[in-house]
Design a protein that fits this description.
546 residues; seven-stranded mixed β-sheet; six-stranded antiparallel β-sheet; transmembrane
Amino acid sequence: MIYQLEQFFRRCRCYLSRNEWLLRLLSLPVYPQEKSEYESGLIIIQVDGLSYHQLTSAIDHGNMPFLKKLLFKECYRLHHLYSGLPSSTPAVQAELFYGVKNCVPAFSFRSHKDHRIVTMLEPQAVIDIEKKLSSQGEPLLKEGSSYANIYSGGAGETHFCSTSIGWSHFVRQFSLVKTVMFILLNIYSVLRMITLIIVEFFLAIIDFFRGTIFRRHDLLKELTFILTRVGICIGLRELVTVGVKLDTLRGLPVIHANFLGYDEQAHRRGPQSKFAHWSLKGIDNAIKRIWQTAQRSPYRDYDLWVYSDHGQEHTLPYPKKFGSTIEYEVEKIFSELSMATIEPKSVTPQSISSINSEQTQRIQLLGSKRLQKIMRTNKLQTVVDDQTRPTTIAMGPIGFIYSPYPLSPSLKEEIAVQLIKSTHIPLVMCLHDINSQSQQVRVWLAEGEFYLPSDKEHIIGADHPFLDEVTKDLISLCQHPDVGDWVFSGWRAYGQPYSFPIENGAHAGPGFEETHAFAFFKTAAITNIKRSSPCKREKVIACYDL
């Protein structure tokens, strides 16, 4: 009798559940259609850009109360995680999803095969890279779902990823009635979006008068960025949360979702800023809602894991510090050394203010052409490099220079020295001998010339928590075929690092914070991780086999 009452109330709760109504509204299939046994499942949540120390600070200051509850009441443990180099999402997810290290040298680079400039939000470029990855390893998310990631990870259903912009095809089948019902069933999230638009608007006005984040002639442009931040921090987060909750009720075996809100705010205002940490409250609440729904899944017993792909460094924007662009300074050096009969492109306040990192293009993940038109974002596509002038690519604190002509070793060294003296770049690297099997890398600093790995303490910092790992990965980075003639970095071991776009928080380099990520698992999973190999993907599989 009691069992029958429990089943009756369970059916009533399911019938009245908003998520159940959304399942019916979207006509989504249930995954284990022919299976009756209760199986295990895995939900992996990535908090993009959140370092280990920023997470502990957020927990201590009450910005992530649900993770704190899991830590103290649900036998979860917080684990240090090394991101690898480059400390950026495309490289980390390639290793996690396919077990392939050093897949790409940065978020943007020039392909050595066809001299096209690749950006890792451009769908076709990411699809081509993922095809190579899938031939080298079994995908982690097979038969699962993937949300707001760079790669699909082999998932059967992908949403808001670089390989599939926007939500899946079933959203295009929405009628007006279904659209209204969808909004009403998610009215709480809609109200949060409206509130944040108002808050962001006033913050933009305050920043305008302070002049701390952008120049005053950029007010209108800054106001348009409000849509980007609201779309990523709230809109995309809520859509991803709804999708993951529905997938747990459908019984998908593995789900990977990426929350970009903190990374978006940290790029703009800094990783330690109050507003970036305020966005963690929304992410924490989203994780809580996913966990609660997963506990009620009728098909699977889900484990929930939370991790970050990398951290962020608090950086000085190079254009704001020196009043110029790194592209202009590099072309100036080539022109002075008669390496290229070119006139360096002029630098204006408008050209400086237009330099932004990848987060300004993330709004395209939502798939809204109307919103892209309002934001005036360029269509993401690979472009053929101009072979008549040097090419400089730096969408963060690490960049590459590609010479239009072959260089002698002496001239290559002379240009490296000039890059340090004239452009204020803190660190320039290249292979010691490109034609040999030597593992040495030449490094130029303001203090002179050094070598990796022998001078790693002076170059990277003796107190770096992952000194040996970073040293090996920097050498591997310089050996990548797509890095060009020089690799340069804004990293300074004993000073605030630079980032070459206009941003107050950055990642991709060898810094203390940007390489220090975290993993948040149950106690049993941590025990297995310590016994497994150092590859992050193999760690996940070892735990998933529990």
